[in-house]
Amino acid sequence: MGVSEDTIRRDLREMAQQGLLQRVHGGALPASPAVADFAGRERIASDGKVAIGRAAAKMIQPGQVVILDGGTTARQIPRHLPLDLKATIITHSPTIALELIHHLNVEVILIGGRLFRHSVVAVGAAAIETIAQIHADIYFMGVTGIHPKTGLTTGDYEEAAVKRALSHAAAETIVLASSEKLNAASPYVVVPFTEISGIVTERSIEKSVLRPYEKLGITVTRAS
Q: What is the SS3 assignment for 153-192?
């Protein structure tokens, strides 16, 4: 483009400060729009999130101990669970717990800690200490960025630590990946792809976008 490396670096720094991209070693990646506030994220790809929530809900079996992450995509899972489901659901999100009020056969365990208002979840040492006592069957994880090079990322350091602890507390981790999160990146890595079992995403996503994850041995579920 006929510009110097210094000019490119300066432009990348300025665009990163404006939230237009995420700088990584050797270049930059699209910044995830999923780092917007909770109300703003509820307006992003809402139909896709409903489909993902419906598909994820079908994966929950009676009698299981399930961890549900916070966030606008995970919020769709309890909305699609059968009202007669008998299971235990653990969450660090008050909004998820409230969605389960009418599921009278679901035991709800709410993890406490410092409220991280951006995602409306509990974070901090108290939350991680509680999570260490849990052995769940499956964890449905929300992230803000999924990219073959940078892995699974989110926008807050403490929230990344809590998500990591939740993943380690479950036999399986399934990532909820609405379209705006794919091929995007955020500053903090949660876990490598080797530590997850599956990804649930939208049916409309091109197969070529999902192929790198399938090559890693990850089961990709395309929600309809």
A: EECCHHHHHHHHHHHHCEEEEEEEECHHHECCECCEECCC
CA-to-CA distance for 150 and 25, rounded, in angstroms? 10
Look up tokens 């729009």; give the residue. 33
Residue 25 exposed, middle or buried by CB count within 10 Å (0-12, 13-18, 19+): exposed
Model confidence over 5-50: pLDDT tens digits?
666 566 666 666 655 656 666 566 556 565 555 555 455 558 899 9
Residue 23: domain span: 1-31
Q: Are 48 and 72 in contact (CB under 8 A)?
A: no
My answer on whether 147 and 105 are in the same domain is yes
| DSSP secondary structure code for residue 31 in this structure | B
| Same-domain pairing of 4 and 81 | no
Do residues 27 and 41 share a domain?
A: no
Cα 72 from Cα 74, distance rounded (Å): 6
> Longest C-alpha distance within the chain, in Å?
65
Dump pLDDT digits (tens) for 152-164: 999 999 999 999 9
106 backbone dihedrals φ, ψ, rounded to 5°: -100, 120
Helix or strand run (H / E) with residue 14: helix 5-17
Residues 122 and 166 in one domain: yes
